[in-house]
């Protein structure tokens, strides 16, 4: 398994627009091979912050998803709404609840 | 929904022991009301680091789980293996893939 978790800071006032793009990405990933989890979260009291957690069958499945046309289009839509991606970690899931 | 994501640093050499305790916790949470996700992850090249991501139906469900006897016992087992919990965030999931 392969995972990523990371913080995205939206441009001021653009968090909700960026959340919409990311939820469309999650929907597009419904068809992606090996995508187990793609959770979009907000952080209380941090009005521009978004937190994404992804779990994939493999790093290769994650990389391949970035080439999907729908995901490429959403990256283009989302990029202007992002101020910074300040923290991002590779986290290799070893088990737990809610995974296949 | 309610979520938490956070980094735990194990005492030197104790990461694998702590992972085992956390996976037992994930198993115990199989019976907990409203626990959707409890993923235990490791971070490449960070030999003492563990990353936990949890998603719950509500903050109240999360709080209630801390009173379960099995979880209390696992907190007692795990605490001596923990060096520090350096970062922890409340992340309120707004949607995505892999959630109920």
List the helices and strands and how they pair.
The structure is a homodimer of 100-residue chains.
Chain A: E1 2-10, H1 15-28, E2 35-43, E3 46-56, H2 59-65, H3 69-78, E4 82-90, E5 92-97
Antiparallel strand pairs in A: 1-3, 1-4, 2-3
Helix pairs in contact in A: 1-3
Brief summary:
The structure is a homodimer of 100-residue chains. With 100 residues, chain A is of the alpha+beta class.
Provide an overview of this structure:
- The structure is a homodimer of 100-residue chains.
- With 100 residues, the first copy, chain A, is α+β, with helices and mostly antiparallel strands.
- The longest helix of chain A has 14 residues, at 15-28.
- In chain A, helix 1 (15-28) packs antiparallel against helix 3.
- The first copy, chain A, has a 4-stranded antiparallel beta sheet with strand order 2-3-1-4.
- In chain A, strand 2 and strand 3 (46-56) form a beta hairpin.
- The radius of gyration of chain A is 13 Å and the shape is globular.
- Chain A starts with a strand and ends with a strand.
- Chain A has 3 helices and 5 strands; from the N terminus they run E-H-E-E-H-H-E-E.
- Chain A has one domain: Alpha-Beta Plaits (2-Layer Sandwich), CATH 3.30.70.100.
- At the A-B interface, helix 1, strand 2, strand 3 and strand 5 of A face helix 1, strand 2, strand 3 and strand 5 of B.
